[in-house]
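Researcher: Please predict.
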Amino acid sequence: MAQKQEYSVRYIASRLSEIVDEGDIPLHIEEIYELRQWLMVDHFDRQKVNQHLQQYAAGNKEMLFEQGIV
């Protein structure tokens, strides 16, 4: 919970702005991906979850444990 507060939308926007102003995006690509993950932390893709559940019900139990629903 503390990390989520540390990575507020305001902080992420500010940090991304700093990276763009520096002009060397490839140098910070890992940090950009991490910031993206924090932006998506509250995103829930109901349609994708339902697709996974349908595949699981149809017998594809390996799909249940795949990452990437978010």
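Model: The chain has a mean pLDDT of 82.
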